[in-house]
Amino acid sequence: MSSILSRLDPRRVPWGAAGHALRSRVLRTKPVESMLEGTGTAGGQGTRLAKVLTTLDLISLGVGSCVGTGMYVVSGLVAKEMAGPGVIVSFIIAAVASILSGVCYAEFGVRVPKTTGSAYTYSYVTVGEFVAFFIGWNLILEYLIGTAAGASALSSMFDSLANHTISRWMINSVGTLNGLGKGEESYPDLLALVIAIIVTIIVAMGVKNSVGLNNVLNVINLAVWVFIMIAGLFFIKSDNWSEGQFLPFGWPGVLKGAATCFYAFIGFDIIATTGEEAKSPNTSIPYAITASLVACLTAYVSVSIILTLMVPYDAIDTESPLMEMFVARGFYAAKFIVAIGSVAGLTVSLLGSLFPMPRVIYAMAGDGLLFRFLSHVSSYTETPVVACIVSGFLAALLSLLVSLRDLIEMMSIGTLLAYTLVSVCVLLLRYQPESDIDGFVKFLSEEHTKKKEGILADCEKEACSPGSEGEEFTGPPTNTCGAKNLPSLGDNEMLIGKSDKSTYNVNHPNYGTVDMTSGIEADESENIYLIKLKKLIGPRYYTMRIHLGLPGKMDRPTVATGHTVTTCVLLLFVLMFIFCSFIIFGSDYIYEQSWWAILLVVLMILLIVVLVFVILQQPENPKKLPYMAPCLPFVPAFAMLVNIYLMLKLSTVTWIRFAVWCFVGLLIYFGYGMWNSTLEISAREEALHQSTYQRYDVDVDPFSVDDGFSYATEGESYPDWGPPEDKGFSYQQMAGAKESHRTSSRSKSKGRHKPSSEALIANDELDYSPE
């Protein structure tokens, strides 16, 4: 007993080593090599997700996940209770804020294409394991609550069309219960349970089936939107926008409505979860995110215009605004047409919430952060069936027990936090020195070389003599016909030559390193915003840049500048959190114009501006990507501010629920995920191999001259370390295995015997090959 207590003595615990081990575990990143084709992502599962989604499919998924509740519910709610006809301006402001997060998502997506898991996978490759788990865990919350809320909303829609006979039958036959909400009694929504189960089966049947249904429902929704636009033109009244009626609640009401309208744009991140199933993710994902946000904005603004021109804002029905606006004008048949669109819109929103959730679970389980059986992919449907069933069951259970109002309140906090962390990560990565992207480019070059090892490699062996290696040739640098004595156009020329201007292929070795349109480094090709700024300021641009301390074109980030940006971003996050908290909870003091409140607000604004300016003074990473967020650091910083403000606008009960969810996630990570992740298992295996070989290296040489060994004299090579054949033991095989392990793991352990000169030459060519 005393020995146990002595071991638990805090003075004997190696806190420094323990802290270093914990820090290395939570900050370790996933190798980008495992993200690409042919490497497998499901923890050894042989079946991969089907790569069948086009750019149009991604746009359809993004629009469908957003436009249902936004068009049929949010527009009427904001118009009546918050902004009046000014809901149009509210939607525009919310769209701008959403696009700020969208461009950060798009850049994060093209940094690590051909992946599934959305922001979880991106942050795992670039930031660290703990941040990745936290983002993925909150994305699961978002999709789980969104699916349950969609099923409950669809159930309420059917109940409304049936004149509430379904809810009355439920209350009389089943009874009521106290849900997981604020204690109010509600009936168990069995219809929502059935709807969630049906949609789960559809999603589990295959991505093509679920996307096909999504496209059909979007076509129906589009047709109903066109009908609303045309039919509504016959009933509009300009008096509803008369003087004083457009902004009845003033600009504070417009801004309050914008905070609510922002939730109508949540859902575009579903596009980022389909990287492994998209045909060309490095171009489809950023385009689809932008196009879906623009399409949603068009639908919301046009519907809001028709709604507020047909019905006075104070007479709008908040439950079913688009159906009741035609009833108010005597067009009863239009109610049922709009009802069809409402059902289609809510169904596609439900599908958009359930579709990405299994894929995030699949990605996390494949990495070992969640239980690995969840990463099983069916060979028949090519979908993560187990993850679909588990997530659908949990969503159905929530829709059965929790009221719709509570689900809507819980839906947004996980999404907003994920958006905030994505903006933080983009801001950090753009100012860091060369990092994992170098390994990404090198791996792509190696993969490109491996693909050429077939017929092309044979032709090169025939064309080049063994001694020349094709490197001493000084003739023309092209060989398109495979003529002898001419080296083929290989990776050496491709890395320094110009590439095809029309493509931005991720498989190209120059991806992320060279400007694909000019063949020069990306930083030397200035962006359009800098060119416009130079034209606007003129010759004073360079003088102003020197006085402000802005980086030059040839400046590159270092470790010191990277640390500076990291410190500034963390301080910026904390300061924005304090600023938004004071703006929300101390608004009374600000409206009363208390001198200390005004001084505190001005001081915090100045500190935020200073931190952003310090970040602006640091040099950016010159890597060129197919899509990059513009106007750094202003766009990610403003996206952080908006998302933090909207998070703090949520209720206290929602934050308590969110804290409970995060606590459960921390238990799972520190109890299971951190010790069973793929990176942890690989590190243990590598450490075991290294310890084995090191122990072998320090052993006494079991072979002596008496056993048949003879050391070569000076000037001789070492063609063979093996003993005489009659001994039956080959030391060369063991040394070969040892050398192969050294090459793969890049360990620096040294053996007792010096390798031969031929081996040194081979290793030198392997390590310093430009490929």
Explain what this protein looks like in three dimensions.
GO terms for molecular function: transmembrane transporter activity. The structure is a single chain. With 771 residues, the protein is mainly alpha-helical. Helix content is 62%, strand content 1%. Residues 37-46, 436-525 and 699-771 have low confidence and may be disordered.
Chain-wise SSE layout:
Layout: H1 2-7, H2 15-27, H3 55-83, H4 87-111, H5 119-126, H6 129-161, H7 165-173, E1 177-178, E2 185-186, H8 190-204, H9 207-232, H10 250-261, H11 281-310, H12 321-328, H13 333-354, H14 356-366, H15 385-401, H16 404-410, H17 413-429, H18 436-451, H19 455-463, H20 491-496, H21 528-537, H22 540-548, H23 559-585, H24 587-591, H25 595-616, H26 634-648, H27 652-676, H28 678-698, H29 731-745, H30 757-767
Antiparallel strand pairs: 1-2
Helix pairs in contact: 3-9, 3-10, 3-11, 3-13, 4-10, 4-11, 4-17, 4-26, 5-6, 6-8, 6-13, 6-14, 6-15, 6-16, 6-17, 6-27, 8-15, 9-11, 9-13, 12-13, 14-15, 17-26, 23-25, 23-26
Membrane topology: Multi-pass membrane protein
GO molecular function: transmembrane transporter activity
Biased composition (Basic residues): 743-754
Task: Summarize this structure briefly.
It is built from 30 helices and two strands.
Mean pLDDT: 74
Structural class comes to mainly alpha
Q: Which sheet architecture does the biggest sheet show?
A: 2 strands, antiparallel
User: In angstroms, what separates the terminal alpha carbons?
Assistant: 60 Å
Number of strands: 2
Q: Determine the fraction of residues in helical runs and give it as a percent range.
A: 55-70%
Radius of gyration: 31 Å
Unreliable runs: 37-46, 436-525, 699-771
Strand content: under 5%
Widest beta sheet: strand line-up: 1-2
Rough outline: globular
By DSSP (H or I, 4+ residues per run), the number of helices equals 30
